[in-house]
Write a structure and sequence with these properties.
Helix content: over 70%
Largest sheet: none
Shape: globular
Distance between the termini: 36 Å
CATH class of the largest domain: Mainly Alpha
CATH topology of the largest domain: Growth Hormone, Chain: A
CATH architecture of the largest domain: Up-down Bundle
Radius of gyration: 22 Å
CATH superfamily of the largest domain: MFS general substrate transporter like domains
Number of helices: 16
Structural class: mainly alpha
Number of strands: 0
Strand content: under 5%
Length: 502
Amino acid sequence: MAASGVGRSRSSRQWWALSVLILPVLLVSIDNTVLNFALPAISAATRPTGTQLLWMVDIYPLVLAGLLVAMGSLGDRVGRRRLLLIGSAGFGLVSIGAAFSPTIEWLIAARAVLGFFGAMLMPSTLSLLRSIFMDRDQRRLAIAIWATGFAAGSALGPVVGGLLLEHFPWGSVFLLAVPLLVPLLILAPLLVPESRDPNPGRIDVPSIVLSLATMLPIVYGIKSIAHDGITVLSVLPLVVGLVLGVVFVRRQLRLPVPMLDMSLFRDGAFSGAVVVNLLSVTALVGCLFFISQHLQLVLGLSPLTAGLVLVPGLIAMIIAGLLVVPVARRIRPSRVVPPALLVSASGFALIALSGGTIDALGIGIAFILLGIGIGAAETVSNELIVASAPADKAGAASAVSETAYELGAVLGTAILGTILTASYRSAVQLPEILTGAQQQAAGETLGGAVSVASTLPADAAAALLESARDAFDSGVGLSAWIGVALVLGAVVVAGTALRRAR
């Protein structure tokens, strides 16, 4: 009887620990979704160029993705719970600074520092789950619940963010981090056990520098190609990033205790699941970037109403992630993940076939299809990544999973967002009465055009808005077709690389 009581107490403590570890997941997903819906308000208040707006969105996941592997490895060494608490405290303080940013440059810098502390949060949560839930069936359910935290936060973000944006300045969306981080800082030391690698190696600073130096030039090169076309100066950063990436990999292979254990990628289930995560998140985040603006700036919905349009799709993502758990116990991942992703591809196709002129109902239906497919596929792929790695490398393996997620977020905005911006610039027709400053603002982003139109006479404003919205929607159709291609690529990877995974 006593043993049974201890077992129940331990099981209960595991699930309470999970509830605490979902808090930073909610934080990150709310932050990403709210920011997309705050873009029109930020554009109107700070008047950024198109490139500055993309950097403001990208710099957080870029820094975060560049440091995730390093922080995952650091957590294995110094303690995963300790790193989680440090990251939470820093993230909360910097969020307050971001909320009161006076300029777009200040906001970009604050987002970069948020990326530094955010990199401490996510690998710690997933790797701690690996050490808390030793039974694989329990762990699969725990990871499904953990993964639904992303969807739940994404669903909560637009609604709460919409309410804030309708009544308060845009900076209020950053203050959402505080009520989530305070209970985390109080409860994590009480409910979450510490864990670390029993045989850690030393921290390799050159590897950390190389991981960042690989990603920054690649994203910069993508943006430069979209802005300036294919030139020597725009292609050179891509080449530099790829070369440094090769140097990073070679260094990891030589180190006796590498920051990133490259042997993990020899497992087809691990590497295949990572690529599936990367491609599907790239498509999803790119979709959110243009859908959030289309709903508000083209269809004229308020931030709250625009957020409510996406809520059914995000709820579908939560439900699909939970329902796939019993299915994944009996059916191979190679037979579960591809059909799920095909459902997501159909959602992108619905937007693409509309040519970008889709209404709110169509977007809601498309996002439900996206949510069903990605919710199921991400749950299975994340569990495969964690289960394929040795327990003492849980932090590094979790960091790889999160790196794929955040790199996908960077590439989604960088590729689809940059294509959208380039298409807008080339297609928009500006009235001759605009001043030089107005031409620059209206010619860079749709948000800038809407802001400039509010200062013009009625006829000129109507002409500018019609041209700007048509130019934006032409890029939405093209971006959606790229989303279809990305998801179909994930289908191929899942059907081949996951064939032997159980």
